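Can anyone check this?
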Amino acid sequence: MPVEAQAPREAQLQAHTEALLRADPLRMACLRTARELALPDWALGAGFVRNLIWDHLHHKAEPTPLNDIDLIYLDAGDPQGLAERGHQDWLAERLPGQRWEVRNQARMHVRNQARMHVRQQVPPFASSLEALSHWVEVPTCIGVRLLANDEFEWLAPHGFGHNWSLQVSANPRCRQESRIFIDRIRDKQWQRIWPDLVVNWP
């Protein structure tokens, strides 16, 4: 697609995604609850947005249940993530019946280094956007926060087009993790839930 055509298309896809979010009572409740917690540089990501788009494109009458709600944030003052459990408990009390997974991205560079089996130091992430941009699959690399004025702020380093194309590709920033990509696709059985997905195997 020509460069001049990409920006209008991305804006259109963003608007479509926002309309889907606003029409989903559970997801809006999750966003409002996360906003109330007010963690630094927070966002709800991964399947929270990705699955919403895939469900719509598969014309599902009911949304696919969320296995968990991924809330990311970045608090450099807690590099070990000691406060994560407390945040999860607070969210569970405010919005019962949901499984929250809260992860401080200030420590994720250490986990990534161990996962990649590399000896050189991986520098800490400077933002949740940077951390999210290293997730294994491109369509998973998307997050959203709800601002005080009820507008959305997006963390979408790869844009929206990939999600709306139903293509599942490995993140080019994680080429060394091709085995993790393959294992995740098979373990999660996404193509059973969303049969129109096209997986681009590395």
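Reply from J.R.: I decoded it. The beta strands are 43-45, 69-73, 100-104, 143-146, 152-155, 167-169, 198-200.
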